[in-house]
TrEMBL record:
It holds the Pfam family APH. It comes from the Bacteria. Residues 40-247 form the Aminoglycoside phosphotransferase domain. This is Thiamine kinase-like enzyme. InterPro entries: Aminoglycoside_PTrfase (IPR002575), Kinase-like_dom_sf (IPR011009).
Amino acid sequence: MKKAVTSRAEKGGDGLYQNRLLSYLDKQCPFKIIQIQPIRNQVYIVESENDEFILKGFSSYHRYKLQEAYTASLKNEGFSKTYSFLDDVKDPPLSFDQFFFGCMEYIPPSDEAFSYEEEKNRKEGLALLDDYHLVSAQLVQRYRTLLPQYKQLEKWQERTAQFIHHLPLIKYFVQKEMINEFLHWADWSIKGMNNETKFFQQGKQVILHGDVAHHNFLRAKDNHLYLLDFDLISVGAIQVDYLQYANRILPSIHWSFDELAQLAQLKPFLKEKGFLYALAFPTDIFREWNRAVRERLYGNPVKMRHILDLTVNHFQERQQFILKLKQEAES
């Protein structure tokens, strides 16, 4: 159910910001804006007299133009399962409160949201990622100078350092024994990855999506699956996206190595030591706790319930999974 944001008199917080944004759009767009609904930070569904579209804010003009160009390149090279930027409002770009806003195609969602809980979704998501890689591999040379080279090891070393820095607060929520185990897994993983650096440098070079969380796959009303949000794209070896995909689905398959091996795209990598070491890194634990401390989410019971569930309730299954990885790496 959509909630219109139309009252110019509403004051305070997000409501005031949205009303100011609505007023700005009224003046800048060549068509009448009827309502605006926030989806997440700096992303809105906008209903105009013509149609609905997505309004997304970018932190710089460069980021906005890069996203616009990249999605157009994907479409031109044959990857159709994503959104397009709209031409209605283009030059000059919409600029509001230090953000540059792009207008993007609205893809009507299915009543059934995409989730990694279902096997058919996990397989279909991988198949769509395959299709994306086939096209993005053709764009590497064109975008190489515009995109960073992905550095997996450096990223996780930094994430570990942040987690250790936040330990004085995290210790109030998580048992010392669990924390020590997480740090042990991270240490084993990073040392192993250091010995297998070639694995993350060699292989097919693609433009990595970089954020294959379930919410970046959209089940559309026509039942087709779409890939969204290219904010974290970089150049790197194809296995990096597969590693992140494996990390994202593991909680849904109860940390089962055997179920992971049943996915055709992942099976060959499970024979690579570098991939096995990387799978042991508690990236989700470190990511969520670092964010909780950084954004002070520890005062939000709903958000903390999710983080504690991930940390505590999955611990034993994850522990058995790590033991299996060590056995495979040593065999």
